Structures are given as structure tokens and as C-alpha cells.
Amino acid sequence: MIELARDEEFAVLTIRRPAALNALSFDLLGKIGPCIRQAGQSGARALIVTGEGDKAFCAGADIKELQNRELRAQREGAEFGQAVFALLDRLPIPSVALVNGFAFGGGCELALACTLRLALPNARFGLPEVKLGLIPGYGGTQRLPRLVGLGRALELVLTGRTVDAPEALAIGLVNRVVQPPGLAAAKAYARQFSGHGLRALQFAREAVLRAADMPLHDGLRMEADLSTLAYRTRDAQEGLQAFVDKRPPKPADC
């Protein structure tokens, strides 16, 4: 099952299928989308995504479901997974993947789709599809190069090898390695930005992520547009006045 819970100012999405290493059946994948949308409408300051237990964040797709399907169903399956994970790009709040144990295949792609990634010391990442004669289909070939660079991404996709937490940190696959208890560490990490105005955070994410597909001059133009929009928010007005008054700002989130 997929559980969405509120923990203080955060929404926490947990994949609860530990007996199968939190593998993503199509049924579970279909339940993630509504939970992401609900988190964005919940008033939470950030979304934390994790898996139940110590062994796996998410061990990937349910392999048995991938066998003996028609070509159309195979294409629709890839597009479905991509569409669900793309909801994280449009989420009005930042998302943080808290990776405990295995994050393989679709599980790794889920972590890649989050805004930021934290790894517990036992985390292991991999896109092993090539070992099955396949390639990643939920966005892994597109998001991984944007994080770790083309050369490293090609190596990981072509070899299908596993990356441990220290290496994931060294190559930029994760933002930080944290110690247990993981949820407490994730909340402490998210509080570094969750107190800022949500509209400003949204504009900043959009500027950085959209610029990855643009020439520099187009990215600068977009940044100017979003910067101008940010000035029009109540959060900006409050933030500037708070600076002048030498006091902490009170985010208005509108």
C-alpha cells in the first residue's frame, strides 16, 4: 500500500510493501499519483518520500508484471510511470527522497524525480535494467545525466552496477548521507528551506530545472521573468520589510 501521512509541517509518503522490498506494482504506482497531488494541496511545507523497513526504499518494478505483455502495453507502462513521477516536478512544494536500503530500477527513478535526495548509510542505488535486456523507462536515462553528468550516467546505465551511499554522495547522486533515525534527519534537513515562502521556492526550482534544457540566454530570460513574478508576491514584500526591520520574515505563501 501507499500511505500519505502528516508529520508536523511535512507530508510523508511511504511505500509499504516490505515483503517485496517495496517493489512497485502497477497498482501501487497508480496510487502514488493521487498521493502526490494530495500532498501538494495539504498545506504541508515539503513532501518526504520513503519506503517501509530497513532493506529497501523501493527495489524497482514488479518483474512478474513486466512479462508477456503486448507492445502497446509496454509503451503505456513506461509512459504511465513517467507521468506519475513527473507530478513531482509540478508539485508546489519541494520533495525529499529518504533512501533506506535498495533503490533499484523504478525505485532509483523515483528518487531521481524528487527535488532532493538523502541516503542512509545502507542505501544502494542502481539502474540494473540492462542486465535483463532492458533499459530504464521511468525517466532514469534523462534525469541521471542531469545530476551526475553524461559520462557517469552512461557508465551506470550501461553496466547496471550498484552505487553505495558514499559514492552516491561523491558523484552528486544524493545531497547528503544522514544517520538513523532517517525520518528525523529528513525533517531536520527539510527545515533548512521549508520555512521560506513556498512561491519563492517554487519559482527557484522552476528556474533551475527548466534551464537544464535551454541555452544560457534563454535561461537568463526565464530567470528574469520568474524573478519579476517573485517580487509581486506578499512573501517578497514581507521578506524585504523584515530585512529592513531586522526581524525574521513571516511567510505568507501567496
Automatic annotation (TrEMBL):
Instruction: Write one Gene Ontology MF term.
Output: enoyl-CoA hydratase activity
| Chain segments annotated as transmembrane | none
Q: Which InterPro entries match?
A: ClpP/crotonase-like_dom_sf (IPR029045), Enoyl-CoA_hydra/iso (IPR001753), Enoyl-CoA_hydra_C (IPR014748)
Record Pfam families: ECH_1 (PF00378)
Q: What is its EC number?
A: 4.2.1.17
Q: Which GO terms describe its biological process?
A: fatty acid beta-oxidation
Keywords, comma-separated and alphabetical: Lyase
Lyase as a keyword of this entry, yes or no, is yes
CDD domains given in the database record: crotonase-like
Q: Does the keyword Lyase apply?
A: yes
Parts forming coiled coils:
none
Xref: Gene3D superfamilies: 2-enoyl-CoA Hydratase, Chain A, domain 1, Lyase 2-enoyl-coa Hydratase, Chain A, domain 2
User: Which EC class is this protein assigned?
Assistant: lyase
Q: Which family does it belong to?
A: Belongs to the enoyl-CoA hydratase/isomerase family.
- By what name is this protein known? Short chain enoyl-CoA hydratase
Could you tell me which species this protein originates from? Verminephrobacter eiseniae (strain EF01-2)
